[in-house]
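Workshop exercise sheet. Pairs work together: one partner reads the sequence aloud, the other fills in the structure field after running the prediction. Swap roles for the next sheet.
Pair: D.N. / O.F.
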Amino acid sequence: FRETLGRSSGFQSHQYRLVEYVLGNRNENLMKVHAHRPELHQLLEDELARPSLYHVALRALEAETGASFAPEVFRLRAPHQADEAVEAAWLTVYKDPSKYWSLYELAEKLVDLEDYFRRWRFNHVTTVERIIGFKRGTGGTSGVQYLRKMLEVELFPELWNLRGAL
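Structure field:
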């Protein structure tokens, strides 16, 4: 199949990059591969200008709990980084789910989404290793090593971190 793919790969897929950006894994350096296609590059630029799914959830968390998060939490052009104030606000929700039922349900759906996404990533890296081993990736990445590193990416870190405090 590599002969058919040529040098292309999922790494170069603007659709996949859009999914990552919507979910909050926003590495604008990964847009460079689309520079030769201005219409695709613009789609990615437009997505980076909008709040991610998690940003929207965090605004709802602020509104319903009275929490207030630092502006850095809402950076549009960078991956979300774990924040203690965000984790504390989610902990408030988890300690009283009946009071904050809609936020609790939202948080659990986000965890489900990330769980499914992580499983997809794991299945993908396993399939790639099975098929091409440790050869260089078709998109110019290190292949399996790069994909394994992506397994460590957390989209909603506070929702995972707070479980140790429950």
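Discussion prompt: Residues 101-132 form the longest helix (32 residues). What would you look at next?
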